[in-house]
Specification:
156 residues; 9 strands; elongated
Amino acid sequence: MKIAVILLSIIFIIISCKNSTDSGPDTDPNQIRLLKTELGGCNDEITPVKIAIEEDFRDTVITSFENGTLIIDAGLNYVCCAPFTTDCKVSNDSIFINISDMCPDIYKCYCKCNCYYTFRFSFHYILKKEYFYRIILNDPRVGNEILFKEGVFKNG
């Protein structure tokens, strides 16, 4: 019985070590990766930025490079109190970002005002070449995906 437990333990350790050193797409040094996502503006429940839609707060997407990191800043005018989540997928030289309003019942989630929501996506392993990006807004009030912004940016 002890021998069987020891053998199973050794097999488990070998499999664990093999999986931890496996070089898949997550370890490819040429593949861009999402480093972090920061939510701001009205996503901050402590100090929301309630606004009337003005020219200073247009829907925006700004791309920049800071110390080898690609930053994609998205600013969205949207109804107050919306519960957002984000998702990001990278495929070759393309970044696909989804911003989703997760309100399960459009009559219970929202407040009667407009807010300016901000989303900052930081990526690393950026090479000196062109990249495509697409940002989709999933809005349950209209029942489908909305193309928020897409474009190409060049590093270097």
